[in-house]
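F.,

This is the one I mentioned.
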């Protein structure tokens, strides 16, 4: 099944005070809440990894396969935590979870993880191979036809 990641999904992985700190820390005047942007970046990253495997088809919109949800949330949590100076929210568990998520997404890209294909495919698919194999053309002049010339 293909899903859209929401703020509620992120809230399940971060305590409310942690999320609030990551959303408001080091913002300049007029700068927007970074959560939506981070979610969008990670969704694009996951979709890119999924599309790297030629067997996969991308789902509609900003959806990702639910097999990749845990990895995407670990990546979002890590990216939000890196916004805070001094790595206040970055403990060893989160660093390990991020490294595992990246390794998992590499496995997805190399077709080592089976992804359930979407019910409805996106019209915009990542580029597939642009090599076109062309067979040899039929010979117009053969050795016997040119004999004696």
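My design for it:
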């Amino acid at each position: 099944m293909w899903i859209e990641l929401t703020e509620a999904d992120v809230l399940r992985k971060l305590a409310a005070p942690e999320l609030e700190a990551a959303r408001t820390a080091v913002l300049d005047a007029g700068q927007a809440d970074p959560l939506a942007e981070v979610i969008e970046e990670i969704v694009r990253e996951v979709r890119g990894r999924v599309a790297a495997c030629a067997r996969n088809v991308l789902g509609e919109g900003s959806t990702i396969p639910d097999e990749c949800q845990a990895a995407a949330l670990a990546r979002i949590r890590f990216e939000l935590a890196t916004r805070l100076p001094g790595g206040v929210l970055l403990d060893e568990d989160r660093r390990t979870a991020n490294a595992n998520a990246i390794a998992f997404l590499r496995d997805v890209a190399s077709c080592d993880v089976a992804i359930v294909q979407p019910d409805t495919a996106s019209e915009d698919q990542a580029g597939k191979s642009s090599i076109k194999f062309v067979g040899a053309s039929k010979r117009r002049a053969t050795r016997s036809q040119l004999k004696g010339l």
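The chain has one domain: 2-109.

Talk soon.
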